[in-house]
Amino acid sequence: MSENVLDLADKLWRGAVSTADVHPVGHLGGLAEIADGVAFVPTFANVSAFATDDGLVLVDTGSSVVAPLIHQELRRWSSQRLNTAIFSHGHIDHVFGVAVWEEESRAENWADPVVYAHEHMPRRFDRYILTNGYNQIINRRQFGLDELLWPMEYRYPDETYRDSHELSIGNLDLSLRHEKGETDDHTITWIPSKKILCCGDLFIWASPNAGNPQKVQRYPKEWAEALRRMSTLGAEALLPGHGLPVIGPERVAQALDETATYLESIVEQTLAFMNNGARLDEALHGVRPPASLAERPYLKAVYDEPEFIVHNIWRLYGGWWDGNPATLKSAPERDLAQEIATLAGGPASLADRALALTDQAQQGESPSSDAAYRLAGHLIEMAWLAAPEDPAIQEARRLIFSARADAATSTMAQGVFRWAARESESPHLPHGQEPHS
Mean pLDDT across the stretch 210-222? Predict the structure, then answer.
């Protein structure tokens, strides 16, 4: 990256550049020295490094793809051995860099590094092995990485803790604390002598990833509570798991407090719908984050979306049923699609209307482009389910979901829509939808 990391972080904060251009999960590269003996390497998932009298401490270690590059970057900054690695949580973009350092330690005859993490992390790795195929599919879909292989082997932590843990490495004292938010195994790392806070993915320069539609349960209320606790520490630098550093006590406090308020509002609104007996559909189309906060440079919906957070809150407090009696014991999707297509005059009629709605949305002719895109998505999917081998419908589906991907702002929506568009390019039946004999 040609521009200084801290200068770019300042521009992002002031809105001089946008997270749509400097995406929080983009691979930036480079290294920023945050304070004496503290380095920050922004990659697909960030790495924070602390020099001590007894070697380096890393908070997160990166993915297997970028781990060698992270190692090279840090080696230009320090020649110390890796003493300790702290995993902020168990997502694979944060925990797959230790092997590079262990290989170096063996070659140099150094002591092996020790890995610390929360006690829930081994259970996460066990689950990843159990659901290997599913995780491979959904991450290929989410990120558009058709060749991604989900790992079957993990570097389990050497030491785990439950609520909090104090570490002294050389001359550096670190406080680890468990929090729930994006995951149930999050660790924040606080270095009081330097007033630096490593928060993992509890802050990522985007609307919190509390609703990812393809991943396991997230905890928005507990996430907000964690942010409130972090804001009381008086940190002067916030080093996140994604995105760039936040520097200065006022900015750190604002980022943490406003992200908490953003989540609290979504939780409170969703629970109000639930407590009044509403359906999920009403909550999805009625809950909105505070408008002033949604426009903050660090809360824009460029990765996850508030609408998806509502889904996760509903699942957490109310279960999987959406309140619609027809969906409790629903008909097979393909049967319903064929019935609707018959009533509409055939699958082509549904596809034609979907294309018309998409054209209206692209031309700005409808009162709400978003509403037109949503309807078009329903109609073309029904047409495709009813006639998946029809080349004209396949092409219409490709065009419509490509348009939806282009119009979407979040990584989550873009990934699903582009996957649907690519799926439409080759003729086959939807997964699990065999024709009736």
Answer: 97
